[in-house]
């Protein structure tokens, strides 16, 4: 059993209200940490002062939780606690979550000490977790061979374990919501199977595939995943700003040779089509691609690059293409933040077309 990552906001909210601790488990690079940050942001809108105190398990030591230091005057040991941890003795009304990233990669000695804090127990009279604070942790799985260590049951039993996963459509939706570079978004829609190839890389690394290059790249921590594609789309934006094209090495170094080369070929195909600037300059006569994959790609790029002031021109262009792709353009424009398509005169005119209205309504 597993839960889709996009559904974890509600799971985390229920866990917090029920005062339960959550441990999210998945393969690397799918966006667990980003999901937790989004959950904190949403909870902050509903609960005043709701915060997140982040810690990275792989670098924690017992001294990062609590330490005994000698008091030379009294000849006794004085306990010092990490001021970054919410403390019932100093802030009993604290609300939020302590986030432990990569918890199963934490030193076992540190986790034994941290268990008392997780349990809400008193720690030497100077540190205790507030009632309004719960623990959220994430980790890769044991089979991912990502430095994860088997931890002891007494601690793990304090957490509800939730295995999470993503689907290609979830990744496409995420990229659209966060306005990733249009080239990467268009590639996602055309090549959903290449968004995440972790299983293929892992199979190659385990000797179940003859693709030695993929296996070697996997050992170096390179495969196609949302983390890698985020790197590509950010570099694409930086390359445009600098007027210096992104190199193939920059692409394959983030997502691997196979997906990277496919992405580069896709960009070359885009280069053979009319540019967005040409569409704006001549929306009524710019060349319409004959191949459906090329037309789909151009439709995606135009819908993603358009600004609200471009709507009259891109509308003229879109009205020249087949109705199903017009509906795809409408939905892409409608989902974009701050574009404001719905309610405009052009939108009303567009969906007044009986064929378009029928497709929009799914009839």
Structure write-up:
- Helices cover 47% and strands 13% of the residues.
- It is α/β, with parallel strands linked by helices and 363 residues long.
- The chain has three domains: 3-166, P-loop containing nucleotide triphosphate hydrolases (Rossmann fold, 3-Layer(aba) Sandwich); 168-272, no CATH class; 274-363.
- The strands form two sheets. Strands 1-8-2-7-6-3 form a six-stranded parallel β-sheet, with helices on one face. Strands 4-5 form a two-stranded antiparallel sheet.
- Strand 6, helix 3 and strand 7 (133-140) form a beta-alpha-beta unit.
- The two termini are 35 Å apart.
- The model has no long low-confidence stretch (mean pLDDT 89).
Kindly report the CATH topology of the largest domain.
Rossmann fold
Q: How many beta strands in the DSSP annotation?
A: 8
Range of strand content: 5-15%
Strand order of the largest sheet: 1-8-2-7-6-3
Order of helices and strands: EHEHEEEEHEHEHHHHHHHHHHHHH
CATH architectural group of the largest domain:
3-Layer(aba) Sandwich
State the secondary-structure class: alpha/beta
Indicate the low-confidence ranges by residue numbers.
none
């Amino acid at each position: 059993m597993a839960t889709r990552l996009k559904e974890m906001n509600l799971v985390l909210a229920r866990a917090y209200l029920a005062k339960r601790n959550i441990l999210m488990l998945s393969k690397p690079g799918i966006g667990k940490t980003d999901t937790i940050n989004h959950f904190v942001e949403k909870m902050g809108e509903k609960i005043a002062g709701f915060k997140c105190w982040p810690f990275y398990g792989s670098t924690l030591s017992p001294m990062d939780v609590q330490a005994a230091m000698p008091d030379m005057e009294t000849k006794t040991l004085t306990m010092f606690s990490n001021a970054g941890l919410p403390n019932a003795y100093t802030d009993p009304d604290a609300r939020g979550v302590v986030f432990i990233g990569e918890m199963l990669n934490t030193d076992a000695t540190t986790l034994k000490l941290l268990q008392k804090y997780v349990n809400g127990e008193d720690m030497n009279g100077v540190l205790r977790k507030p009632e309004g604070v719960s623990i959220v942790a994430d980790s890769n799985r044991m089979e991912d061979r990502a430095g994860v260590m088997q931890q002891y049951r007494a601690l793990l039993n304090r957490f509800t374990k939730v295995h999470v996963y993503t689907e290609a459509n979830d990744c496409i939706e995420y990229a659209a919501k966060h306005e990733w570079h249009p080239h990467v978004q268009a590639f996602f829609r055309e090549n959903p199977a290449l968004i995440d190839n972790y299983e293929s890389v892992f199979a190659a690394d385990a000797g179940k595939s003859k693709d030695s290059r993929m296996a070697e790249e996997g050992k170096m921590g390179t495969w196609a995943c949302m983390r890698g594609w985020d790197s590509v789309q950010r570099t694409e934006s930086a390359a445009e700003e600098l007027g210096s094209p992104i190199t193939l090495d920059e692409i394959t170094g983030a997502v691997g040779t196979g997906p990277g080369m496919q992405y580069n070929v896709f960009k070359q195909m885009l280069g053979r089509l009319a540019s967005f600037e040409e569409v704006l300059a001549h929306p009524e006569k710019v060349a319409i691609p004959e191949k459906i994959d090329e037309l789909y790609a151009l439709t995606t790029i135009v819908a993603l690059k358009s600004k609200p002031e471009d709507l009259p021109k891109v509308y003229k262009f879109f009205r020249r293409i087949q109705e199903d792709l017009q509906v795809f353009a409408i939905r892409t424009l409608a989902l974009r933040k701050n574009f404001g398509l719905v309610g405009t005169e052009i939108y009303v005119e567009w969906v007044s077309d009986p064929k378009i209205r029928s497709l929009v309504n799914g009839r």
